[in-house]
Amino acid sequence: MFSKTALVTLTYLSVAFAQQVGTLTAESHPALSFSDCTEGSCKQSALSVTLDSNWRWLHTTSGSDNCYDGNEWDTSLCPDGETCASNCALDGADYPGTYGITTSGSELELKFVTKGTYSTNVGSRVYLMADDSNYKIFNLKNKEFTFDVDVSNLPCGLNGALYFVEMEEKGGLGTASNKAGAKYGTGYCDAQCPHDIKFINGVANSEGWVPSDNDANAGSGTLGACCSEMDIWEANSISAAYTPHPCSVTGPTACTGTDCGDGDDRYQSVCDKDGCDFNSYRMGDKDFYGPGGTVDTASKFTVVTQFITADNSTTGDLVEIRRLYVQGGKVIQNSVTAVDGIDESDSITTDYCTAQKTAFGDKDAFSERGGLSVMGDALERGMVLVMSIWDDHAVNMLWLDSTYPTDADPAKPGVARGTCATDSGKPEDVEKNSPGASVKFSNIKLGSIGSTY
Predict the structure, then answer these.
(1) Which stretches of sequence are listed as region Disordered (predicted)?
(2) Which pLDDT band holds residue 174 (cuts at 50, 70, 90)?
(3) How does residue 15 score in pLDDT terms, banded at 50, 70 and 90?
(4) 20 to 30 A from 386, CA-CA: which of 159, 194, 221, 233?
(5) Catalytic residue at 229?
(6) Residue-wise DSSP of 386-407
(7) What are the tens digits of pLDDT across the range 29-75?
(8) Which of 229, 368, 380, 428 is catalytic?
(9) Into how many domains does the chain fold?
């Protein structure tokens, strides 16, 4: 079904070009504590986070001239991907001053707009590190993942996301092809097969690069970067969703054209871009989540996600993804579906996903890519934890918190996803009116079922 010639597994071989490391700003990862739990106790360890390479200053190896400025490459330095990788270096980051990223103990705060000395930064994406050079790899089968979150300062159009993707532990660090690696936040991929990643496999994605017509900082290259994705948390103060996205490829994989699911070929992608989501508002409970809701987004709360296997082992087939919340000392069970054609359910299962696709009239790419079973395989192989804050230059985050598609009847099952207006969420409006928006994640834990809350 998929063209093999367009797919290149992101193996990291020694070649003559390199993705370089700059020395103008020292890289110091902000510390962030993390807890491993077993029944009755949790053990805290001191970890850290690193900033994604896409946000970092990219300049000449011999000086400070920009290799990438605004949303365009300097073609004299980057006539092709290999030469660009040889000429240009990723530098260290001023986390609080340039990017609005701060940590304290177990808490990470990501600010939306930060006015630095030399530039204005919008959004950010960070990864949890095991040590200074390696991403922490999570194996989630038959486990429970828990964190606290404060979304009270996230209005319509923003997304404070926490999720897992099947990145490589070292971020593609190789003896020559990528000298930056996980320390400098390289190797990102997800189920949308994004084309805006500046370096893929240590090579600049500069060839065929088209600057965005509505984002002064972004563009798209010929290559996309695909991998399985488990969205634990995509949310603002109005709406929230959790969504598995299985892929037919293993690990980070470069793609072009149809295999990326570009344009009208969305459902030909090697990854399920839609996923099987559980958004309480979309699933019929309009009062469960939001300001003053059962889960009251005006204050901090705990999010618990459990990955249930058929035989309750770490190697069994994934059969269910459960969700519950804790707020004000009270355990809150997930909302129950109230949609015609879908049996009452409060978790993601194969039956739930199949019924949802039918009831909403959506193509079932989730099942076609192997559903929970294939998602479970990725969880067993291991995934990297990502935390981000972002606005949406494609569809204004309406898929999360409003009526989407905007020309559809909101009464039709699956169309209404939240209370935000259909003209909300435009990046130019959100960046102007809510620059001080932020999200806070804290008390991140992994443990046996029932051990983390």
Answers:
(1) 410-437
(2) confident
(3) very low
(4) 221
(5) yes
(6) EEEEEE-TTTTTHHHHSBSSTT
(7) 999 999 999 987 999 999 999 999 999 999 999 899 999 999 999 99
(8) 229
(9) 1
Which DSSP state fits 20?
Answer: E
pLDDT at 177: 64
The catalytic position among 27, 166, 168, 234 is: 234
Q: Tell me: pLDDT of 399 over 50.
A: yes
Does the residue 163 lie in any domain?
A: yes
User: Which of 78, 82, 29 is closest to 58 using CA atoms?
Assistant: 78
Q: Is residue 73 part of a domain?
A: yes
Omega prior to 211 cis, within 30 of 0? no
- In this prediction, residue 116 carries a pLDDT of 86
Give the domain extent around 181.
Answer: 4-447
> Among 171, 186, 177, 200, which Cα is nearest to 15's?
177
**Is the distance from CB of 193 to CB of 205 less than 8 angstroms?**
no
pTM: 0.94
Instruction: Give the separation between CA 306 and CA 45, rounded to whole angstroms.
Output: 22
In a domain, 452, yes or no: no
CATH for 186:
2.70.100.10
Phi then psi dihedrals of residue 365, to 5 deg: -70, -20
Between the alpha carbon of residue 452 and those of residues 41, 94, 319, the distances in Å are 8, 33, 21
